[in-house]
Amino acid sequence: MAKHIGILTSGGDCPGLNAAIRGVGKAGLSRFDMRFTGFRNGFYGLVHDRTLKLGNEMLSGILTDGGTLLGTSRDKPHKMRIGGKTKDMTDAAIDTYQRHHLDALVCLGGGGTQKNALRLKEAGLNVVTLPKTIDNDVAGTDVTFGFDTALGIATEAIDRIHSTATSHNRVIVVEIMGHRAGWLALESGLAGGADIVLIPEIPYDVEVIAEAIRDRGRAGKHFSIVAVAEGAMTVDQSSTIHGLLLEKEAATEKEEKAEASEKLRQFHDQHVRHTQDLTAKIEAVTGYESRLTILGHVQRGGTPSPVDRVLATRLGTACAQYLAEGNHGDMISLRGSETVPVPLEEIAGKKKLVPVDHPLVESARLVGTCFGDAAG
Ligand code: F6P
Asked: N or C terminus of the chain: which is more exposed, having fewer CB within 10 Å?
């Protein structure tokens, strides 16, 4: 009998999700005697049994579509908002899985999804995941699909901002997504020739940034582009957050842990506006008229780049092959030129951040990019 596979997409959407669904689905239907049921809006659909039959018709013509035909959400089975309350709905997710007599569930998502999938694995479900996100911060894979498309969009934005910054002799700060990781800001900053790149992994000092801008002025360049990751921080903010993380780690009582988590949440809530503050400070300290451009969700929208279409298709078809061989419990990742299964236990809860001595950081420094730290 055909294997019955469930599929869902969870977390923030990104270009390439439909290409990956198509990769798993087409390979599974045509080569491995599988049938598919999609769950709508991530784990919410699994818990509430909201389905979409994924036959050949649904899988056709979606390779180049942005977003996800299944819909997505940030819901977690073990902490779901139901009627104004947070409930553990893991049993409901298991019920749906069993009611449909699924042989396995494929979860396409980022870091949060890997954690949720591991919980379902521990609860006895046969899960397999694929790594997606524009942030490129999923551990255990060289790259996630969605990243290349967002990189192209952010780079084009920086390119376009160059001409207007030059015409007006302005400093333009460009806020780039990436959550707590700096990959997108680093690579688009490098590709777009940003003068200053600020990433969460390298805390900055505004005075160092100001001096780099003044240096450019002295060399006759009266405009500057500052590419800032949304999670970038000053040296002080970084030590505050490290303190809060240590406090959370050291907490032994449930209440203490909750208190530390609440403080962290408040810190991140307030941090959302940090690029506005940074732009104002740069203007005040350097005297250059400064503007802020927040790229926001435009980085996640639209058709996937060819690189993302290829990556998503490869990971999707590798996933179907892996399932056909009777496997489950892993994330299908890209390592070098190979697709390899990595146990969820090895990656769940881990973030792939930019190493401060990464070759791309070194290369950027060598072309004169300032990271706002002591190294300039
Ligand atoms: O994880 C992808 C991402 O776009 C991050 O870069 C960003 O911090 C976050 O999602 C935004 O989430 P939301 O779309 O829920 O506002």
From this structure: N
Which class would CATH give 4-145+304-336? alpha beta
d(CA 19, CA 341): 19
| Amino acid code (one letter) for 105 | L
In the chain, which residues fall in CATH 3.40.50.460? 150-300+355-366
Model confidence, pTM: 0.96
| Distance between Cα 285 and ligand 1 center (Å) | 31
- Which listed residue (13, 75, 103, 135) is catalytic? 135
Out of 177, 297, 353, give the residue to mutate to test ligand 1, the one with the largest number of ligand atoms within 8 Å of its CB. Answer: 177
Interval 299-354: pLDDT, tens? 999 999 999 999 999 999 999 999 999 999 999 999 999 999 999 999 999 999 99
d(CA 299, ligand 1 centre) in Å:
10
From the CA of 178, give the closest atom in ligand 1.
6
Please report, rounded to a whole number, the percentage of residues in the chain having pLDDT higher than 70: 100
CA of 12 to the centre of ligand 1 (A): 6
Cα–Cα distances (Å) from 46 to 181, 304, 360, in that order, read: 29, 26, 40
* pLDDT tier, 167 (very low <50, low <70, confident <90, very high otherwise): very high
Nearest Cα to 223, choosing from 185, 142, 167? 167
* CATH 3.40.50.450 boundaries in the chain: 4-145+304-336
Which are the contacts of 229, defined by CB distance < 8 A and separation ≥ 6? 176, 177, 178, 181, 182, 184, 185, 186, 198, 199, 200
